[in-house]
Amino acid sequence: MRSIAILGAGDLAATLARRLAEQEQARRVVIVDSDESRARGKALDIVQSGPVEGFDVQVEAAVSLTAAGAFDTLVVADPPELADPALPPARAAALGESLAPVVAQRMLVVAAPSASAVIEAAVRKGLSRERVVGSAPVAYASALRRRLASEMQMEPSAVSALVLGLPPESIVVPRESACVGGVPVDRLSPVALRRAVAGLGGRAPGPVALAAAAARVLRALDRSRASVLSVVVQLQGEYGHRGVALAVPARLCGNRVDAVVEVPLDPVDRVAFDGAAQRRQREAYWA
User: Fold this and answer.
1) Which of 118, 122, 155, 162 could form an SS bridge with 100, CB 3.0 to 4.6 Å?
2) Tens digit of each residue's pLDDT (9 = 90 or more) over 141-199
3) Residues 209 and 285 grouped into a single domain
4) Are 252 and 177 in a shared domain?
5) What are the residue ranges in the chain where pLDDT is below 70?
6) Cβ 138 vs Cβ 213: under 8 Å
7) Nearest to residue 134, comparing CAs of 63, 68, 237, 218?
8) Alpha helices in the chain (DSSP H)
């Protein structure tokens, strides 16, 4: 990617900007926030660390997306509309509606945990569902893998799992997807998966994990060969639901959501996933 704009100048935005610069995932990163002095301070701090860390990326600040200039991808990190969970959900939806015409044919990645309202609003306003995705489920999947590894005394890198639903409140983990070295977790421990999922309930990842997840999704989008990751996508009939944005596995490549991957769900997981969809519909209705 040539240029990435990051909306917000909080801990998540700054951590993501630093990670993108260190890994040189873009030639230019712009931190966009209404508090321009704060954004400039974060950008300057990252730029000054470049010679020490060995990276050479242009990191800038802007007071608005208009002032940010040309960009290939917009990442929603922690703007005021999403910074405080106590704010009305309607503000997240209004943000999504305002971003749809700005993004147009480019890619919109929502790194904040509360991605569903932003994604649904952006799609309603005409943004293609292939052009907007939420990256937080990658962080939830990583946390789950860590907990599973701890439960089973295994290396976290040997554990794989998919996260579906509406995390952190409604987490659905298809049993066939939870494996250690390719072996289903249930064959090794009948209780490890249940304990790991229970340990994640209601806990949102921190800015470092969310930034790592967003960076991973951006890498997948930038490649020509597809990666399958758990991300928030607007459903269009997949899993029996339409018009709601939920965490599902999807193929990412070529700067777009190539396809939603439908994995088999046992009856218990199906009920839990349908419950997550209904919960999201209620949230959208009362917003």
Assistant:
1) 122
2) 999 999 999 999 999 999 999 999 999 889 999 988 999 998 999 898 889 999 999 98
3) yes
4) yes
5) 1, 84-88, 287
6) yes
7) 218
8) 11-22, 36-53, 80-83, 89-103, 116-124, 136-152, 185-188, 192-200, 207-222, 267-286
